[in-house]
Predict the structure.
Amino acid sequence: MADRKKIEGLVIKYVAMAYGVDAAGLTAETRYDSLGSKSTRLIKISALLEDELDIKVPISRLMKNELVDDTVSAVYDLLVEAGR
C-alpha cells in the first residue's frame, strides 16, 4: 500500500529539483504560484515521478494543483488506482 508520508517527501524532493530551491524550505502547503512559472517544471516533476514510481503521472492532473499537497494526493491516488 502507498505510504503518503514517503510520497510527500519524494514530491517535495522533486519540486525542489524542478524549481531549483532548497527542499527544506518546502512543505505540503507550499503554493506553486509562490515558486513562479510552473508548466515546464511540472513536466519535469511528472517525468521524475514516473521514473521513480513506474506509473503514468498525467500532466493534466498536475496542472490543476495549487499546493504541493495536491500533487501528493494525486500521486497517492494514482498509486492506489494501480494497486500499489
